[in-house]
Design brief:
199 residues, alpha+beta, Ribosomal Protein S5, domain 2, Alpha-Beta Plaits, 5-stranded antiparallel β-sheet, 4-stranded antiparallel β-sheet, 30% helix, rod-shaped, ribonucleoside triphosphate phosphatase activity, Impact_N_sf, guanyl ribonucleotide binding, plasmid
Length: 199
């Protein structure tokens, strides 16, 4: 199971007189990740190196540090903790002592990892949306039988001559059991299918 962050987290440390400040936040899209990076970057820092991962999309930047010493280690910190939909920027203020390539990899990767370790996280749940057309009497029975389906939301989207049209959003891995429950409750009368995406 993959996790994402629940809120923004910051972590700061000093390594051989260089100051490193990590800023990590949840990001549901590439656009949101770039906003996190812009907000977390410090204009007075020598380097603002960053990485993000959103599903199969990942990007990183060394921002002037030697190639492969900053952005990739930050991305590895994200992946190493089983995180997704996350953006991290690590700002560095040079303290006068050169760290060398290995030292930079450890400093950027370690600062990002410490920041992510401290962050509150939550599991990423993949949701499915179903359309259910059922009789009025069945609607009440469906709504009162949602106990075994945590995280499920039901909204009425319209009415038909015979009953009601519902949009049900629930964790994808519960969709099959939910469909079976509705079929049993309505004695096969309810029509269930994927709901069209709105917006």
């Amino acid at each position: 199971m993959m996790f994402t962050l629940t809120r923004t987290e910051r972590f700061e440390q000093e390594i051989k007189k260089s100051r490193f400040l990590a800023h990590a936040a949840p990001a549901g899209s590439e656009e949101e990740a770039r906003r996190v990076i812009a907000a977390g970057s410090s204009p007075d820092a020598g380097h603002n190196c960053w990485a993000f991962r959103i599903g199969d999309i990942y990007r990183f930047s060394d921002d002037g540090e030697p190639g492969g010493t900053a952005g990739r280690p930050i991305l590895q910190a994200i992946e190493g903790q089983g995180l997704d939909r996350v953006a991290v920027v690590v700002s560095r203020w040079f303290g006068g002592i050169l760290l060398g390539a290995g030292g930079l990899v450890r400093a950027y990767g370690g600062t990002a990892a410490s920041c992510l370790k401290a962050a509150e996280r939550e599991p990423i749940v993949d949701y499915a949306a179903l359309s259910v057309a059922c009789a009025f009497a069945d609607e009440a029975r469906i709504r009162s039988s949602l106990g075994p389906f945590p995280g499920t939301q039901v909204e009425t989207t319209g009415f038909t001559a015979d009953g009601v049209q519902l949009r049900v959003t629930l964790p994808r891995d519960l969709a099959e059991d939910f469909t079976r429950m509705v079929t049993d409750l309505s004695r096969g009368q309810a029509a269930i299918g994927p709901a069209g995406d709105r917006g």
